[in-house]
Specification:
The chain has five helices and 13 strands. By secondary structure, the protein is of the alpha+beta class. The strands form two sheets. Strands 1, 2, 3, 4, 5, 6, 9, 10 and 11 form a nine-stranded mixed sheet that branches. A four-stranded mixed sheet has the order 12-7-8-13. Strand 7 and strand 8 form a beta hairpin.
Length: about 260
């Protein structure tokens, strides 16, 4: 593999998910965001207003957009990124003023000590209601002038696991598992946590849900389950994040090796 070989990130919402195999190291470099034409800004704001009217729970918070991916060497992936807010993602749906906006997200593969994998179903208030997925979420930038690095991704992944499942893991106990490319050119960085008993994880999730309900909040995952392979996803019913079958298949292979 040649240095600086760019990874193609198709922008179609039908793009099948696939792994970028062999990633052992990540480098992240911030770049300037693309300038928006006046018509693009107007279209984005109009679409955002419509989206908020349909779902008042939406929040236009800061987010990280992936500008590109390339190989620095056979084991090192370079991710370039820029700062934006969530409303920018709506431009990729605009047929006239469209812009390729690729999300950068993290997730955590939480195995059980009997070889299963924890998955959760997105609540109705989330951006993917009813979809089965690994605990995780879109990356948020650090403060202005603060670099984004692997340590930031680890902290964010650990925080998502605690907020969605109630299981606390130190960031340094997570290991880089794999990187994927999916719908709309999205890039996922997936970490693996140490195995835990399924009963303990279920109890932690139940306590989290009870606490969230007592505070008048809706848990981000309305249900969790444990699977052994991608073949068991159909038994859960509903939809799933497009990268989940790929990750479930990877988990099954890792358990059999």
């Amino acid at each position: 593999m040649q240095p600086d070989l760019e990874v193609e990130l198709p922008t179609s919402p039908q793009t099948p998910a696939r792994e970028l195999p062999g990633v052992r190291n990540l480098l992240l470099t911030e770049v300037d965001p693309p300038p928006l034409r006046e018509a693009q800004t107007a279209a984005m704001n109009r679409r955002w207003a419509e989206a908020v009217e349909a779902n008042p729970a939406l929040f236009d918070g800061p987010t990280v957009v992936c500008a590109g991916v390339s190989w620095k060497d056979p084991e090192t992936l370079l991710l370039t990124w820029y700062r934006a807010t969530y409303r920018l993602f709506l431009l990729r749906q605009d047929p006239e003023h469209g812009l390729p906006v690729r999300s950068l997200f993290v997730s955590v593969a939480q195995p059980t000590d009997d070889g299963r994998l924890l998955v959760g179903r997105g609540a109705s208030s989330t951006s993917h209601p009813g979809a089965w997925q690994l605990p995780g979420g879109t990356m948020e930038p650090a403060g202005t002038g603060v670099a984004l690095d692997t340590a930031c991704l680890l902290r964010h992944a650990a925080r998502e696991l605690a907020e969605e499942v109630g299981h606390v893991v130190a960031p340094e106990d997570l290991e880089l598992w794999t990187v994927t490319r999916g719908h709309n050119g999205s890039v996922g960085v997936h970490f693996r946590a140490p195995a835990r008993p399924a009963d303990a994880l279920t109890e932690q999730y139940a306590r989290l849900v009870a606490d969230e309900v007592a505070r008048g909040r809706t848990p981000e995952l309305d249900r969790i389950a444990f699977i052994r392979s991608h073949a068991e996803l159909e038994e859960l019913g509903g939809t799933c994040a497009n990268v989940l079958p790929v990750l479930a298949a990877r988990h099954a292979v890792s358990m059999s090796s």
